[in-house]
């Protein structure tokens, strides 16, 4: 019978999810704030720095992460660090500081009370 105990070594060291959800017309959403572009930029920069792949990093688009009022947002696991970003400069800073060097980008943290 296969073991149900998780591996001591995770398949990815870090996983970043970008909300790319689009809500009903008239409702704000991450998709309306170029979230797909943010995810693509993150993937591009991470690949250029050699951060991608098993044992390293995975960049994923996600459905609604339920924090629309702070959008666009992304979250880095296993740390559970939430970011709100605006442009490529912000994405590049997240990639270089957090994903490459393990340093949280304080200025981009999503306020903990902001949800829908």
The helix count comes to: 2
Cα-based radius of gyration, to the nearest Å:
15 Å
In what range is the share of β-strand residues?
A: 15-25%
- Quantity of strands, as a count: 4
CATH class: Alpha Beta
Largest sheet: 4 strands, mixed
Distance between the termini: 43 Å
Class by alpha and beta content = alpha+beta
Low-pLDDT sequence parts: none
Shape call: globular
Spatially, the strands of the biggest sheet line up as: 2-1-3-4
Question: What percentage of residues falls in helices of 4 or more residues?
Answer: 10-25%
Please name the fourth-level CATH homologous superfamily: Glutaredoxin
Overall mean pLDDT stands at 92
- CATH topology assignment: Glutaredoxin
Question: What labels would you give this structure?
Answer:
23% helix; 116 residues; alpha+beta
Task: Explain what this protein looks like in three dimensions.
The chain is of the alpha+beta class and 116 residues long. It has a single domain, classed as Glutaredoxin (3-Layer(aba) Sandwich). The protein is 23% helix and 18% strand. The protein is built from two helices and four strands. It has helices at 35-48, 88-100; strands at residues 14-19, 57-62, 73-77, 81-84. A four-stranded mixed beta sheet has the order 2-1-3-4, with helices on one face. Strand 3 (73-77) and strand 4 (81-84) form a beta hairpin. Helix 1 crosses helix 2 (88-100). The radius of gyration is 15 Å and the shape is globular. The chain starts with 13 loop residues before the first strand and ends in a 16-residue tail after the last helix. 29% of the residues are buried. The mean pLDDT is 92.
